[in-house]
Design a protein that fits this description.
Blueprint: E1 2-9, H1 15-24, E2 29-33, H2 40-45, H3 47-65, H4 81-105, E3 109-112, E4 114-119, E5 122-126, E6 136-145, E7 149-151, E8 164-165, H5 167-170, E9 179-183, H6 187-199, E10 202-206, H7 218-230, E11 234-236, E12 240-247, E13 250-256, E14 262-267, E15 269-272, E16 276-278, H8 285-288, E17 311-313, H9 324-338, E18 352-354, E19 359-364, H10 367-373, E20 377-383, H11 388-392, E21 399-405, E22 411-418, H12 421-433, H13 438-443, H14 453-462
Helix pairs in contact: 1-9, 3-4, 3-6
The structure holds flavin-adenine dinucleotide and nicotinamide-adenine-dinucleotide.
């Protein structure tokens, strides 16, 4: 039986980054993955493939809707979905192969198979196909559970994965839906809804709450709703879905709410994107004494240790945002803790990004949270319509909103929507990491003309110093 310092179950951005860091720190490490490719949800069926098709369709959208504004006539434009998907598959292969390289480089042993606990220090690895291949037993001083999450559904919806689908199937469609019905106006619904709306599908989003992306600062949902409606997506907010049924190639959705009390929609595909559930199936956690919380997540303390010392858990399978960078930050945290270091993760400063067009991002407290806390705060904002760079790029939809402590001017939250926001939010995270004030940002030189200047202007506005460009 081979003994390791660290055994990691799951090779997503939580597991593989933990493995890299363990390798760097000189720990004898192995990673177990049940699928043939490494990289988990994010690289195989999540972040990377979705961004690949978002990029392709964004180019198509620009070519069909914005080129004329720039004085470019492009005739006979045609989007070829199978070719877009083939490019996406090539991108996925490249990033997954990259993880294999990283494991080799950092001397991490890779085992393919389903891992399950035998006891608190022993894990069994069985062939994924359940076949007659050899089972292996491994022991380790430390075991990191990084088994991620799977799509959730509603109790009355059967996901047949052909017409009633999850994000995984939506990222691999070979034909363009005529009418894609989406249950859930969160991140997946809006990103994948955008992909198909840009290609010409009719897209209807049915959302339970009264806003889209409801967990982000409310301003962002309002602005994004306006933009997406202009792009042709239809929204049914405050609607409770009661049935989704398939007959042949037709899917029928029924929901309660709205002016007519009952909504009926008929389409050829229905994407169910109502969140994801932590995945611990088949792990046999009971054999190790690892407990779950009331939401089925692996219970952890503030050090990400489970109810059993020496067994840790990170990423989507534990509490907190289901984001790749959060999983990776936790992977580094646990690896460094095992190596005797004193790491830190600041959960308040984990940014959230939605890759629609315009892009949306937020970090820190939302205005709603500050109100709830009874905090006295100031709001500074700057519209993209006043940005020289946005005007030059003909991308003027959007704004930056900065929330500061009314007494100290410290930045408490930054919420943005607009072109290239996914990258600009990193500046806000950096400033907030050092507990910077809005006035500090006003003192930093920002290249002109850039979209990032909008963040500086919003900070000047929050600090009560007149905006320089408005
Ligand atoms: P996962 O990535 O889910 O990896 C877990 C791995 O564990 C899987 O490979 C699984 O096969 C393996 N495993 C499970 N059980 C066992 C077992 N018993 N034995 C062996 N292996 C096992 N996040 C972002 O930050 N940005 C984005 O743009 C983004 N886009 C997304 C788009 C989509 C469509 C989806 C679905 C998700 C997206 N996410 C995004 C979320 C992101 O993918 C997850 O937060 C992230 O993958 C979580 O990482 P993880 O390591 O915790 O788990
Ligand atoms: P989500 O939590 O973002 O959105 C789910 C939406 O479904 C919410 O708006 C919710 O109100 C709605 N909903 C819930 N029950 C409903 C019902 N019965 N009827 C109608 N609407 C209902 O979840 P998701 O979009 O499925 O994404 C899952 C996870 O994947 C998220 O946690 C997200 O962080 C992650 N992800 C991140 C990115 C990114 O970072 N860009 C992209 C995709 C996915």
């Amino acid at each position: 039986m081979t003994t390791y310092d660290v055994l990691i179950i799951g090779s997503g951005p939580g597991g593989y980054i933990a493995a890299v860091r363990c390798g760097q720190l000189g720990l004898k490490t192995a990673i177990i993955e049940k699928y043939p490719t490494l990289g988990g949800t994010c690289l195989n069926v999540g972040c990377i493939p979705s961004k690949a098709v978002l990029e392709s369709t964004e180019l198509y959208q620009k070519a069909t809707h914005q080129f004329t504004e720039h004085g470019i006539d492009a005739d006979n434009l045609r989007a070829d979905l199978p070719r877009m998907m083939a490019r996406k598959d090539r991108v996925v292969k490249k990033v997954c192969d990259g993880v294999v390289f990283l494991m080799k480089k950092n001397k991490v042993d890779v085992l393919h198979g389903v891992a399950s606990f035998v006891d608190a220090t022993t894990v069994q690895v069985e062939p994924s196909d359940g076949g007659s291949g050899e089972k292996q037993l491994l022991t380790a001083k430390n075991i990191i559970i990084a088994t991620g999450s799977k799509p959730s559904t509603l109790p009355f919806i059967t996901l047949d994965k052909e017409r009633i689908i999850t994000s995984t199937e939506a990222l691999a469609l070979r034909e363009l839906p005529q009418h894609l019905i989406i249950v859930g106006g969160g991140v997946i619904g809006l990103e994948l809804g955008s992909v198909y709306a840009r290609l010409g599908s009719k897209v209807s989003v049915v959302e339970y709450t009264d806003a889209i992306i409801p967990t982000m600062d409310r301003t962002l949902g309002k602005e994004l709703l306006r933009s997406l409606k202009k792009q042709g997506l239809e929204f049914y907010l405050s609607h409770k879905v009661t049935a989704v049924e398939r007959t042949g190639d037709t899917v029928k959705l029924t929901a309660q709410g709205g002016p007519s009390a009952e909504l009926q929609l008929e389409g050829d595909y229905c994407l169910v994107s109502v969140g994801r559930r932590p995945y611990t199936d088949g792990l046999n956690l009971a054999a190790a004494g690892v407990e779950l919380d009331e939401k089925g997540r692996v219970k952890v303390n503030e050090d990400l240790q489970t109810t059993v010392p020496g067994i840790w858990a990170i990423g989507d399978v534990v509490r907190g945002a289901m984001l790749a960078h959060k999983a990776s930050d936790e992977g580094v945290y646990v690896a460094e803790l095992i190596a005797g270091q004193a790491p830190e993760v600041n959960y308040l400063l984990i940014p959230g990004v939605v890759y629609t067009w315009p892009e949306v991002a937020g970090v820190g407290y939302t205005e709603e949270q500050l109100k709830e806390q009874g905090k006295t705060y100031k709001v500074g904002s700057f519209p993209y319509s006043a940005s020289g760079r946005a005007l030059a790029g003909a991308d003027t939809e959007g704004l930056v909103k900065v929330l500061t402590d009314a007494q100290t001017d410290e930045i408490l939250g930054v919420h943005m929507i607009g072109a290239r926001i996914a990258d600009i939010i990193a500046e806000a995270v950096g400033i907030m990491h050092f507990r910077g004030a809005a006035e500090d940002v006003g003192l930093i030189s920002h290249a002109h003309p850039t979209y990032a200047e909008a963040f500086k202007e919003a900070c000047l506005n929050a600090a009560g110093i007149g905006a320089l460009n408005m």
